[in-house]
Input
Amino acid sequence: MPSSGDVHNERVRPTKNTTLPVRSLTLAAASALVLAGCGSGGDEASQTPSSTVSVSPSPSSTVSVPAGAELTEIGADLAFGDTATVIYEPNQKKGTVLDLTVESARRGSTKDFSGFILDEAARASTPYYVDVKVKNTGEGALGGTPVPLWGVDDRNTLLPPAAFTTTFPTCASKPLPDEFKPGSSFSTCLVFLAPDRGTMTAVSFRPNQDFDPIEWTGDIATPKPEPKQDTKKPDVQKQGEKQR
Output
C-alpha cells in the first residue's frame, strides 16, 4: 500500500515568453502539478487536495450518509466501470457523499504535450489518461475542489493528478464545478504521470495516509503504433518495361 512519502515529485517550467507567471511548481503530497502551455494565457489552478481530509469511518466526521446509501467497503478492489460510494471532506467546512466511477484508462505519450515545457523528469514519464464520473449523492455542496483520485504505478508510488493552466484537449482535466450541489453529476479526464517510464497499474481513492485505499484496476488501452512510411523507391526499370 502506498504511503504519502511515495508521492512522486515532478517539476514543469513555463517559458519566459508566456503570459503565465514564470516559476516552477513542485508536485508533492497534497499538491498538484501545473502544466503551462507555451504562449498561452489562462488562470492558474488554485485549488489543491487538502492534507487534512477526513473520511468515514471517523469519529470526527460530521458528514451524514443519506438513507439508503451504502458506503463502499474500505480497501475494496474494484474494476473499471464500477462505482464507489464514499465520504469526501476536502476541509472541515465542506463534506458530502460522492459516487466515484473510474470508467476507463488509456496510456498516452509525451508527444501529446507538444506546446508544453517539460523538464527532463517529466519527459521521461509515461502519461495516463483516466475518464471518471462523479455524482454528489450526499447532502453537502462542494465547489472547485479536485476530484479525489490518485494513480498508482508499478513501483507502488502515488501519482497525483495533474492540473492545467491552459486547455489540454487530449484529456480535458478540470476540478469539480464551482457549485457542485446535491444531485449534481460531473465527468472529466484525469492525467497521471508515471515517473521513469513507469506503468500505471491502478486508480486509488485515498484521502489520507491512514485510509486503506479503494482501488480500481482493469485493461488500460494503449495507443496504436503509427503506420510505417514506405520508403522503398519504385523500380524504374520495371516501370519502363510495362510502358513498352
Observations:
- Residues 3-34, 39-59 have pLDDT under 50 and may be disordered.
- Residues 11-46+77-224 form a domain with the Immunoglobulin-like fold (CATH 2.60.40.1240).
